[in-house]
Every structure is written in structure tokens, then in C-alpha cells.
Design a protein that fits this description.
The protein starts with 8 loop residues before the first helix and ends with a helix. Helix content is 39%, strand content 19%. By secondary structure, the chain is an alpha/beta fold. The protein folds into two domains: 191 residues, inorganic pyrophosphatase (n-terminal core) (Alpha-Beta Complex), CATH 3.90.1640; 134 residues, Diaminopimelate Epimerase, Chain A, domain 1 (Roll). The strands form two sheets. The protein has a six-stranded parallel β-sheet with strand order 3-2-1-4-5-6, covered by helices on one side. It comes from Halorubrum saccharovorum. InterPro entries: DDH_dom, DHH_sf, DHHA1_dom, Oligoribo/pAp-PDE_c-di-AMP_PDE.
Length: 339
């Protein structure tokens, strides 16, 4: 079971029950773990009598599975650009913890509530439940539903179970006993046919083309692969391409990056147990933007302005930028291998 002996469930209960409004903020481009966790916390807030509950997100919902999940489970979302956080009595972060890092929140603000499983330093808030030893934030929110003995319907059970499935790659990545315990609790109520349907959501044409570009543009050195997609519109192509390329024989680490709007977005994967890819990305790029993540999966973004302006039609400048990012990545990977 999840290790929650030091968690003060009553404190969050009292905080929510005494509030008239809360905005639950997902990380940018929210995935199923973030979406299901936000839905769960919003349900907890509603059942505790909070009058106004809003789920906000930054970025876009471009991954075909994420769009299908939002539509099938009727998850009400509001772009963060249409919210004024100061209008809410409480601001809650789920599946992320640091303002301005992988979220569209001013880095000077401090959230009231943080519930997250990603490795991070100096997490602040009135109420913080930070468990990097757990495989999914949806697992933690499932425990809150159990602790409060609140009603759990098919919609929420399906969302949470799908969130755990996706975050752990069907219980094959960073899975702990807590995920199995949560899945056992959710299993009887969840709609398994819908979970199967969501898991088999079809690729968009751009996603398929992006994965093809990642294959064509790959550069491999030893067991490490780096690929650039140039300018793309769907950020979620990157993690899908990084996952796909990790299947290449002889490759144990992949990093795929592309230009999305005014940022370079990166997604990395590794099955090398000796490499902490989140720490490697953080050490390489965090001073320029924000980067980091887990032992075997990570991401980051760098504002284009820090590396020089790149006109959308300037192929030479884009190529130079691609070579610069690749050089930094391979240099970092080489340094790690030599250490």
C-alpha cells in the first residue's frame, strides 16, 4: 500500500471544506495522469461543498489519447488564459509543483495546494503532498478518495485507472505496490472497454508524419539517439516519438526535440538503469529554461530567444539551432558515460 503515514489528510479536508472556490491547475499540455488527478481533486472539492471548482490548463491538448479522454469522460477544462487565479480562494497544482516550470503560472506565485509525484526540490504551499516514490499522481488522489470515504463513480474510476495505466505504461514503468493497490480498488468500478478504446486511439496524420521524421532525422552515437523534428504544431508528437525510437535495437536512451511556437520542446526516455535522464536534462538545460523529470522519462522547454531568433521560414537558422541542441545533448551524454 501507499506509504502515507505522514500525510495529514484532515488538513486538506478542512482547507477545502472551508473554501468557497478552488482552481485546479494541470501542467501544460496535460496528460492522462494530470487530467485524472485534476478531475479527482475537483470531485473531492465538490463533495466537500466548494461552490466554484474549475480545472485549468496551459498549452494544448493535442495528443489523440488525451483529447479522446477529455471528450469520452466529459472533463470540463478551462484554458488558463481565461482564468484569473487571484479570483479563487485556493489554487491547487496536481502532477506538477513549481510555478513557472511546465505550467503557465507566474513563477512568483505560491500555490495553496500541491499534490505531485515528480522529483522536485523546494516544493512550497499551504498544503503539500509530494511523493516522488509513487509512480503516478492518480495513485495519490485515489488514496484521498479512500481516506475520505467519498463516492466514487464509474467516470472517475475510469479516469484514474487510465491515468495510472498511461503514466506507468501499463504497469511496466516505475510501478510500485501503490499503483497495484490503487488499480485493485478502482478495477470493479471502471469501464474497461472505454480504457481499451482510449488506449487504442488512432494516430493523427501529423503524429504519424512526426514519428517518421524522427526516424529519418535520428543520429545515433553508441546506445544514445537524438532526433529533431524542426517546427511542429503538436507537442505530444515528441514523447510518442521518443517512446517509439527506444524500441530500436541497441538504443537505450532517446531524446527528441522540436520547435513549438516560441520554445524548443524536448522529450527523453531511457531504459538504462544507470542513467537518470531527468537529472541529465535538468543539468543540461535548466539554466536556459526548465527541464527535468524521472529516472527513465523527462522533458523540458527552452525559450527560443535564449538561443537566438529563428524565423519560421529560415531553414539555415533552424538547422544551426538543431545542431546546437544536438551537440549539447551528446556532450552531456558523453560526459555522463565517462563519469
Amino acid at each position: 500500500m501507499i506509504d502515507d503515514q505522514t500525510v495529514d489528510y484532515q488538513r486538506l479536508y478542512d482547507l477545502l471544506a472551508g473554501s468557497d472556490s478552488v482552481v485546479v491547475v494541470c501542467h501544460d499540455n496535460p496528460d492522462p495522469d494530470s487530467l485524472s488527478s485534476a478531475l479527482a481533486l475537483s470531485v473531492v472539492a465538490e463533495q466537500l461543498g466548494v461552490g466554484t471548482v474549475t480545472i485549468a490548463y496551459g498549452g494544448a491538448i493535442s495528443h489523440q489519447q488525451n483529447r479522446a479522454m477529455v471528450n469520452a469522460l466529459d472533463i470540463g477544462l478551462t484554458p488558463i488564459t481565461e482564468c484569473t487565479l487571484a479570483d479563487f480562494a485556493l489554487v491547487a497544482f496536481v502532477d506538477h509543483s513549481i510555478p513557472g516550470r511546465n505550467n503557465s503560472v507566474d513563477e512568483e506565485m505560491t500555490p495553496d495546494i500541491v499534490i505531485d509525484h515528480h522529483p522536485s526540490e523546494e516544493v512550497n504551499g499551504q498544503y503539500v503532498d509530494h511523493r516522488p516514490n509513487v509512480g503516478a499522481t492518480a495513485t495519490i488522489l485515489t488514496r484521498y478518495l479512500q481516506a475520505y470515504e467519498l463516492e466514487l463513480d464509474e467516470r472517475l474510476a475510469t479516469a484514474l485507472l487510465f491515468g495510472i495505466h498511461r503514466e506507468t505504461l501499463s504497469f511496466t514503468r516505475e510501478t510500485t505496490a501503490a499503483e497495484h493497490a490503487a488499480a485493485s480498488y478502482l478495477h470493479s468500478l471502471a469501464d474497461h472497454s472505454l480504457i481499451e478504446s482510449l488506449s487504442n486511439s488512432v494516430f493523427t496524420c501529423e503524429t504519424l508524419s512526426g514519428i517518421g521524421d524522427a526516424i529519418a532525422n535520428r543520429e545515433v552515437r553508441g546506445s544514445c539517439l537524438v532526433s529533431s523534428l524542426g517546427r511542429i504544431h503538436e507537442r505530444d508528437i515528441l514523447p510518442q516519438a521518443a517512446d517509439y525510437l527506444l524500441k530500436l535495437e541497441g538504443v537505450s536512451t532517446t531524446v527528441v526535440f522540436g520547435i513549438v511556437d516560441d520554445n524548443i520542446q524536448l522529450s527523453a526516455r531511457t531504459n538504462n538503469s544507470q542513467l537518470h535522464i531527468g537529472e541529465l536534462l535538468k543539468n543540461t538545460f535548466d539554466e536556459d529554461g526548465s527541464a527535468g523529470g524521472h529516472h527513465d522519462m523527462a522533458g523540458g522547454q527552452i525559450p527560443l530567444g535564449l538561443l537566438g531568433p529563428v524565423d519560421e521560414d529560415d531553414e539555415v537558422a533552424t538547422d544551426l539551432l538543431n545542431q546546437s541542441v544536438k551537440k549539447r545533448l551528446f556532450s552531456a551524454l558523453d560526459s555522463w558515460a565517462e563519469s
